Fold:
Amino acid sequence: MRSRCVLPFTREITVSLILGRQHLDRIQDTLKKNLIGSGVQNTMLIDMAGNVIVTVDNGGETRDMYSLAALAAANFGAMCSMAKIVGEDEFSLLFHKGQKENIYFSRVNDELLLINIFNNQVTLGFLRLKMAQVIEELCKVLD
Amino acid sequence: MAFINLKDRVIQAKIVYYGPGRCGKTTNLEFIYSKCREQINSEMVTVKTQGDRTLFFDFFPFDIGKIAGYDVKIQLYTVPGQVKYNSTRRLVLKGVDGVVFVADSEAERRSKNVSSLANLQENLALYNKNIFEIPLVIQYNKRDLKNQGIEVLDVETMERDLNETLKAPSFEASALDGDNVVATLKKIISLTMSSLEKELENGDWQ
Structure:
């Protein structure tokens, strides 16, 4: 029997997402302190439509974060659809390992996604611990 | 859903080129990319299948200058046109602020245009967006085919098929030659910006 793939349309948004200076400063501080301070090269908060909300780096990166955000949102959406096909709500860990650089995706809430680029000096386990803390802090700011 | 950054005074808006497979969505973006290189700060992103068809989308961000003191960054996307990639088309439509529907003028493609437009309406509805309300421009592409002796639909027929009730601004174009590609883009940017301005005026963000 074939099952129908249903995309994760969890919430309909009809108004623009608007974040003020205070919110953005707090998000930036949280990312800088917890992630860049722990050795992550780039960290970026995006929405599921692929818009860049906040991006922070360690000062030495010149990556095209707008393109990365578009691809990351699409990748995450595709992964959610794949999860549904195999009977999962979502895959909780999205991690791409390269020879030198790695990417880790985390869902913050229904609409936001946190992307981290890091090298092999940062361990995945340590990053996961940090991410749990960061997501909790971000949720407080966004509430 | 446009994203507005009050701190850095940046607006990001998403414009999607929609239409049936092989209608020329990617060619539109390739032409814009080649003509407006100085306003585009990144490489054009394309995710293609083996047969060179768009699998996910083509994408690039495009700076159009300032509106009301805000830097406006337009994110241009295409969708995969092939029928089987509907779930991907839905993903790309998420948060869309404006749509260019690219119709194929080749006579044989008449029914494909109609079903693709119906598919757009259906997919927009999933995000609570109404095709009659969203900024929309229709482009009748591949007008150059008649020079090669290929039968093309006359514009009146295409208007009747696709735009009789929508009454969207429409352009005859050839994405391959670049005819009216920039005019189409300018029109959708202007409609999208007016729509966002209205949304901002009505909002309490100021």
